[in-house]
């Protein structure tokens, strides 16, 4: 079966997939049926997670405070719904060409409530959406950061994932040994709304590994104007915080300490970051004030 795994990896590379990892059923032992991919396809032998990078440039407009739509499309919706979805779907067809069933799974939040009733006794109510954070760690691609965002060794927080379940038995990817997050606390320091606790933490266990994450008030994040985006499936689920100030500040730290393999000649942040506090006022350096003149009103409130 290693031969098929090699063929799958080669095909994924051709498709522009940056990250691919494999896990078997044993890595999901103890996971609740609503979060477990094997609830969807009990005969599956392998979970495959495939990821594409969020290009650093898609965050540029948010970092400068001058263009928020670019990230929302290239870093989020188009990347997830089109670029990555097509590559993942092509990979499912490739696996099926090789004689095994392959089930493509879209990254819906796993805490969405059921939208139907159980079709038979012992079956979970539809729809079951597996926990992608758990699966990306279980497939050896990521660790979980203090800021509750997946970090890969390659891109830090900059990737999106799709999942494929298959009845092909494929060798598993080793779990990542070292945590990419070094618990520096810069994310909590950077949040202008105090949404990340520096004291209150939670232990999250995934496939035998344990991650310490900060307590985060997502109700505050849902009101954040520093690059966070309310969850598009349900405002009750965790918002997208990859472009938010907390995570962009973390990105700078990861790059500075050489924690990532995807490197750049120039640093991401070249002047003091702008921020909008709880009262809606903008805090920015004079240099940025010039750049942002067209975006923010003189009162310091967002002008759009
Ligand atoms: S800023 Fe530091 S503590 Fe926060 S997620 Fe990044 S590396 Fe971890
Ligand atoms: S999303 Fe906004 S409010 Fe939430 S932790 Fe990040 S910067 Fe703070």
β-sheet strand percentage: 15-25%
Overall mean pLDDT stands at 93
What strand order characterises the main sheet?
A: 1-2-6-3
Number of domains: 2
Strand elements, count: 10
Low-pLDDT residue intervals, each spanning 5 or more residues = 286-304
Count helical runs. Answer: 9
- Helical residue percent band: 25-40%
Structural class: alpha+beta
C-alpha-based Rg, rounded = 20 Å
Head-to-tail CA distance between termini: 55 Å
Main β-sheet: number of strands, strand sense, barrel status?
4 strands, antiparallel
Characterise this structure.
By secondary structure, this protein is an alpha+beta fold. The protein has two domains: 2-166, no CATH class; 186-273, no CATH class. Helix content is 29%, strand content 18%. The chain is built from nine helices and ten strands. The protein has helices spanning 2-14, 37-40, 60-64, 69-97, 132-138, 186-190, 218-223, 245-256, 286-291, and strands at 19-24, 46-53, 102-105, 142-144, 150-152, 159-166, 196-206, 209-216, 275-276, 282-283. The strands form four sheets. The chain has a four-stranded antiparallel beta sheet, sandwiched between helices. It has a two-stranded antiparallel ribbon with strand order 4-5. Strand 9 and strand 10 form a beta hairpin. The radius of gyration is 20 Å and the shape is globular. The chain starts with a helix and ends in a 13-residue tail after the last helix. The model is unreliable at 286-304 (pLDDT under 50). Bound molecules: iron/sulfur cluster (2 copies). Residues 145-147, 181-187, 250, 253 line the site of one iron/sulfur cluster (SF4).
């Amino acid at each position: 079966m290693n031969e098929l795994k090699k063929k799958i990896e080669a095909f994924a590379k051709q498709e522009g997939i940056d990250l691919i990892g494999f896990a078997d059923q044993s890595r999901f032992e103890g996971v609740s049926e609503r979060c477990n991919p094997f609830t969807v396809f009990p005969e599956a032998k392998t979970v495959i997670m495939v990821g594409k990078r969020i290009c650093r440039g898609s965050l540029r407009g948010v970092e400068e405070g001058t263009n928020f739509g670019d990230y929302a499309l290239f870093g989020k919706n188009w990347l997830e719904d089109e670029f990555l979805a097509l590559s993942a779907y092509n990979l499912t067809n490739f696996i099926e060409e090789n004689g095994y069933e392959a089930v493509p799974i879209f990254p819906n939040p796993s805490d969405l409530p059921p939208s139907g009733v159980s079709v038979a006794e012992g079956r979970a109510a539809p729809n079951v959406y597996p926990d992608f954070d758990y699966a990306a760690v279980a497939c050896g691609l990521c660790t979980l950061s203090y800021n509750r965002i997946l970090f890969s060794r390659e891109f830090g927080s900059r990737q999106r994932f799709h999942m494929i379940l298959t009845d092909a038995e494929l060798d598993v990817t080793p779990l990542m040994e070292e945590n990419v997050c070094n618990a520096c606390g810069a994310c909590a320091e950077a949040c202008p709304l105090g949404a990340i606790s520096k004291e209150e933490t939670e232990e999250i266990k995934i496939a035998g590994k344990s991650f310490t994450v900060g307590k985060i008030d997502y109700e505050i994040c849902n009101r954040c104007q520093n690059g966070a985006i309310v969850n598009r499936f349900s405002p009750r689920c965790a918002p997208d915080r990859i472009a938010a100030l907390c995570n962009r500040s973390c990105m700078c730290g990861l790059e500075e300490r050489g924690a990532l393999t995807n490197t750049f000649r120039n640093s991401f942040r070249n002047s003091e970051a702008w921020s909008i506090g709880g009262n809606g006022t903008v805090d920015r350096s004079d240099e940025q004030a010039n750049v942002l003149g067209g975006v923010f009103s003189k009162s310091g409130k967002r002008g759009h």
